[in-house]
Amino acid sequence: MKTLSQRKAQIEARLNDLECRLDHIADELNAHETHDWEDRATEREDDEMLEDLGLSAQDEQRMLAAALDRIADGSYGDCVFCGEKISEERLDLLPGTPFCRAHARAADRR
Question: What is the CATH number of the domain that holds 40?
Answer without folding.
Answer: 1.20.120.910
